[in-house]
Design a protein that fits this description.
Blueprint lengths: L1 H7 L1 H8 L6 H17 L4 E4 L7 E2 L2 E2 L9 E5 L14 H16 L3 E7 L6 H10 L3 E5 L28 E4 L8 H9 L5 E4 L2 E2 L2 E2 L2 H7 L9 E7 L2 E3 L17 E4 L6 E4 L4 H17 L3 E5 L8
Parallel strand pairs: 1-15, 4-5, 5-6, 7-8, 8-11, 11-15
Antiparallel strand pairs: 2-3, 9-10, 12-14, 13-14
InterPro entries: Aldolase_TIM, GH, GH114_TIM-barrel, TM1410-rel
Protein name: Glycoside-hydrolase family GH114 TIM-barrel domain-containing protein
Organism: Cetobacterium somerae ATCC BAA-474
Length: about 300
């Protein structure tokens, strides 16, 4: 339910922050957290979602910081800010595109997550994403809780880096599945080039063996598995959450996000949160995912 609520209101959140640059000190602190993640697992793929201003100093791309990531992702670039199947307003789209085009020019893969379930829009979304050399999908609902038909055919070759990806699954809320094993079986039956997924269900993670199996498609070729990883907000359904926090929040947890039930704005630079991030990252490394899909990096704009 928490993930469902998160996706339902995402278009409202994007509308509110699209034109906010955020405090420079807060931006630097978020950059430091991302650098920490990269340093801990240098070989892992990093794909931050939204908040692309973090890669810029004014209007100029920070050429050193951009080296820490392999790609970026943007929700509702062409469709989804105002509702499912609704085109993103031109001014907001162009604002987002300005950053994304510069990032793509530096060899970073840009993923476009659009919210649309109208089959008539599929061709338009594909055309828009190909125009800018992005990789896009039409996700059928804000809950991101189901398998959908990719816009492009799956690669028949091994996919071992982001530049080889032609399509991707975006499944962040597996609440529909009976258990983690049922979740695994459904994922195994897909042939997407890239799986961007929540790696757990009801507190139980996909196993190392299951992740290893998911990396091989039915046709025998390799694909990539990238795990959802919220680094700018604490989520009260995660294993790191203490029951005592429900009564009294620790000093480094600021408040509950009024738009996202169960998600809490945090002082992401605090030693306590950085330790939580290290431990959660180690868990992801232990199960063998190829990389992390870094969400809520735009929390820095709240400070």
């Amino acid at each position: 339910m928490e993930r469902f609520m998160k996706k339902i209101i995402v278009f409202l959140f994007i509308s509110m922050i699209s034109f906010v640059k955020g405090d420079e000190v807060s931006k630097i602190k978020m950059r430091e957290l991302i650098k920490q993640i990269k340093t801990q697992s240098k070989e892992k793929i990093l794909v931050p979602q939204n908040g692309t201003n973090i890669f810029f100093n004014g209007d100029k791309l920070d050429m050193e910081f951009i080296k820490n990531v392999d790609g970026v992702s943007q929700e509702s670039l062409f469709y989804g800010v105002g509702g499912i199947n609704e085109a993103t307003p031109e001014d907001e789209k162009n604002y987002l595109l300005k950053n994304l085009i510069e990032i793509e020019k530096e060899g970073k893969v840009v993923f476009s997550v659009n919210y649309a379930n109208d089959k008539k829009l599929r061709g338009k979304i594909l055309k828009d994403t190909e125009k800018y050399n992005f990789v896009g999908e039409a996700v059928s609902s804000y809950s991101a809780n189901s398998i959908f038909q990719p816009l492009q055919k799956n690669s028949l070759k091994n996919v071992t880096n982001l530049k080889e990806v032609k399509n991707f699954l975006y499944l962040l809320n597996p609440e529909k599945f009976k258990n983690v094993d049922d979740y695994y079986r459904v994922l195994k039956n897909t042939d997407f080039d890239l799986l961007i997924i929540e790696p757990s269900l009801n507190g139980k993670f996909l196993t190392k063996e299951q992740i290893k199996s998911l990396k091989i498609r039915k046709n025998g070729t390799r694909r990539l598995i990238i795990a959802y990883f919220s680094i700018g907000e604490a989520e009260n359904y995660r294993g790191y959450w203490h029951n005592s926090w429900n009564k009294k929040l620790p000093e480094w947890i600021v408040k509950e996000n009024e738009n996202w039930e169960g998600n809490f704005i945090i002082k992401y630079w605090s030693p306590q949160w950085k330790e939580i991030i290290r431990n959660y990252q180690k868990k992801l490394d232990d199960i063998g995912v190829d990389g992390y899909y870094l969400d809520t990096i735009d929390t820095y704009e709240q400070f």
